[in-house]
Amino acid sequence: MDSISLSSRFNKTVLQQYLSLPQGDTCLVTYVWVDGTGQNVRAKTRTLDKEPQTIEDIPEWNFDGSSTSQAEGSNSDMFLIPARMFRDPFMRDPNKLVICEVLKYNRIPAEHNLRASCNQVMEQVKEHVLWFGMEQEYTLFGTDGHPFGWPTHGYPNPQGQYYCGVGADCAYGRDVVECHYKACLYAGVKIYGTNAEVMPSQWEFQVGPCEGIQMGDHLWIARYLLHRVCEDLGIVASLDPKPMTGNWNGAGCHTNVSTKSMREDGGLEHIEKAIEKLSKKHGEHIREYDPRGGQDNLRRLTGQHETANINDFSAGVANRAASIRIPRQVGQDKKGYFEDRRPAANCDPYAVMKAIATTCLLD
Ligand code: ADP
Ligand code: MN
Ligand code: MN
Ligand code: MN
Fold first, then answer.
1. Are the CB atoms for 217 and 99 separated by under 8 Å?
2. 20-41 core/surface letters (b: 16 or more CB in 10 A; e: else)
3. 263 Cβ closer than 6 Å to some ligand 1 atom
4. What is the rounded CA–CA span in Å between residue 176 and residue 116?
5. Which of 136, 140, 281, 347 has the smallest CB count inside 10 Å?
6. In this structure, are residues 233 and 201 in contact, taking their beta carbons and an 8 Å threshold?
């Protein structure tokens, strides 16, 4: 049990006593943003005197960027600009979560605010009614840094029994998955599904289909909810794309994509055109698909464990060893969507979406 945090062992009946106190007309708003790592979220909370009805009712705020590796020199105040509002499943109605953009003192987007430029591209391609669906894989760790549920010495059984597995010998940490799922539904995150992954203590949830910029907003809040649920349960969710070396699967963030014309009869032709364009920009995309310009994916995209080698571009129907997969059903229906399997689990969805939209629809 030492792998489970001390805080998670507080008496939850006592917590409930306070959470159930009335709060009058006030509304707690938790502002969530991406910090200077480009992959971690930060959050802080304030009181509004009444419930905001729309995003415009939530005021701008600020934070100390020197404590999140985001500030430049002596100008440490950064602006938080509310972008999309969700319900707060922890403090419950009427309280809110809000995903924010970060601006510098001069009101220029901060270095890791990739939403601003993604949004510009999404506006430019609006007529295509671009949909995304992202599959977020993650791995659970104890607070001691050891994979959750793995034996203290040695390894669990090799991979084979865990993907979509059921039973105490196959599924490690399902409480996280179920709490997170309900939290997403309550919040208004468009969660699509979930499954146990190939490596023990590795899981996946999917978000989508979402139109345009919404995809990134929903995925970042879903990640916030995941980390927050894990905090309550006393363990840690890692988005490292290759958490365990050796014969263990890595973690990706497969990105499914379709335009209006791809979804209509004969759409396969448009899917093939998009793939042709992607094939000419492989290097550019790899640089956008993890927060270290491809360095993180170097450990994951080896050509093994259901990945294509980072140096090669490939595409195929039902091929999970390709960069781009056309789902079998889509091949049969000759319409639908395609899956870009390259983005790493710790990618910034805004960077991935912007790269795909630019290559497929603007070039
Ligand atoms: P996989 O077989 O690759 O594991 P999943 O079932 O995990 O697929 O995920 C499917 C994803 O595809 C979901 O995120 C879903 O939102 C997304 N999706 C489904 N239809 C479309 C579509 N027409 N356009 C874009 N994304 C879609
Ligand atoms: Mn999946
Ligand atoms: Mn998966
Ligand atoms: Mn997939």
1. yes
2. eeeeeeebbbbbbbbbbebbbb
3. yes
4. 32
5. 281
6. no
Structure token pair of residue 87: 């319900």
> What residues contact residue 289 under an 8 Å CB cut-off, 6+ apart?
297, 342, 343, 344, 347, 351, 352, 355
Compute the CA torsion angle 30, 173, 192, 320 (nearest 10 deg). Answer: 130
Residues in the chain: 363
pLDDT by 10s per residue, the chain, length 363: 579 999 999 999 999 999 999 999 999 999 999 999 999 999 999 999 999 999 999 999 999 888 888 877 677 889 999 999 999 999 999 999 999 999 999 999 999 999 999 999 999 999 999 999 999 999 999 999 999 999 999 999 999 999 999 999 999 999 999 999 999 999 999 999 999 999 999 999 999 999 999 999 999 999 999 999 999 999 999 999 999 999 999 999 999 999 999 999 999 999 999 999 999 999 999 999 999 999 999 999 999 999 999 999 999 999 999 999 999 999 999 999 999 999 999 999 999 999 999 999 997
Instruction: For residue 190, give the ligand 1 atom closest to its CA.
Output: 16
The answer to whether domain 122-362 has CATH 3.30.590.10 is yes
pTM metric for this prediction: 0.98
Residue 348 alpha carbon to ligand 1 centre in Å = 18
CA 128/CA 61 separation, integer angstroms:
34
Minimum-distance ligand 1 atom for the alpha carbon of 341: 3
From ligand 1's centre to the CA of 225, what distance in Å? Answer: 21
Residue 360 · residue 277 · CB < 8 Å: yes
Would you list the domain boundaries of the chain?
A: 6-111, 122-362
189, 192, 249, 334, best to mutate for ligand 1 pocket (most atoms within 8 Å of CB): 192
Q: Which amino acid, 317? A: V
* Superfamily for the 6-111 domain: Glutamine synthetase, N-terminal domain (3.10.20.70)
For residue 257 and ligand 1, the question of a CB distance below 6 A is answered with: yes
